[in-house]
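Entry: Glucokinase
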Amino acid sequence: MRVDKFTLALMNRRLVLKTIWERGAINKAEIARRTGLSLPTAIKITDELLDNRIVRSCGRQEGASGKRPEMYEFAGDCYYSVGIDFAPTVLRALVMDLNGMPVAKANRPIPVPEDADAVIQTAAELIDQLLRESGIPLHRVLGVGVGVPGILDLDQGRVLFSPNFHWEDVALLEPLGRLLLQRTSIRWPMRLENSNRAMALGEQFFGSGVGYHYFICINLGYGIGAAAIENGELCVGASGTSGELGHITVEKDGPLCTCGNNGCLEAVASGRAIAQQARNLISSGVKTRILELAGGNIERVEAKTVFAAAREQDVAALDLVRRAGEYIGIGIASYINLLDPEKIVLAGGMSNESLLIEQIQKVVKIRRMRFAGRRVKLRVSNLGEYGTAIGAAAIQLKTLLRQGGLSLTKEQEEAV
């Protein structure tokens, strides 16, 4: 296959920028050696990246004999990105630099999930608030990434179906971008991504997936979802719907799921499902500490209430946690048998519950095939509750690396 000059130049820029980003401090000769490019080509591209303020000098190489070569590093703190997570009950947003360092973050409860206009309005207000609080020049912000649960049209920026919000065919990026333009006078590039896949990007660039080429991130929270990174790339699927782990059937005649099917993993083992099962037990007269921990109000029973009771060795709560862990473990073991990943990263609010994780690990060990996943590592994410927002913001870093740098506006150049 013949490659034209433009494509070849782009490929070379990607190589050089990715090498500098991965290696940290590195000299031009080492860049040439690691990329396989000629030294003049490596020097030319590095100088172009210096001009764009994507790369900067970071001193001379220590310990070298003779004239010590100049060292260069990725200037990740020169530009910023916004990420926002449309979680089922709360919006979480942050502004971070391209090294993954947050400079401002906050959350707001979602007013009425079914009211898309109100949710989008709240999102715009939250982003505007964070940009003001951060104090950074707005022209240093490269764009906004948005993570939403459900089936999405990524090209059109639309939510085709989100059972958690009860949305169908909702335009998201266009109205959000318009509201931000009204507030900031800037029209930023905006990218939409499924919240589970955004979470996986966060792990890939800044979390437990760093250095792994093939891993799966599993989101255990209000709902259940997953996303896979294969050969360093996010798996999206032919129609953009990959990763719906929560909607595999685990009980043929199980409870109705928000997606419309019966017996989905999410319907029996998610945070929402655990809370509903606890409320059902209380209503049927089962004696349990769960109601007491909810202040005697059954409507205040949440998954975290059940986990708190389980830590106190409440029998009913322990049984609910054991049952959820068994179903989730079966789902993860199936993923391992199918895909043979290097690593499984457990994220989301329920990933911090040790009793649940212990049960999951036990079931995975039993249920996976004898020789499948022999080397797989099961780890809990360290990114915390803002993991999806971090991943949404990381979309701009991914775009920058794919483009081999930026074509900066005059305002951006002056802002650096």
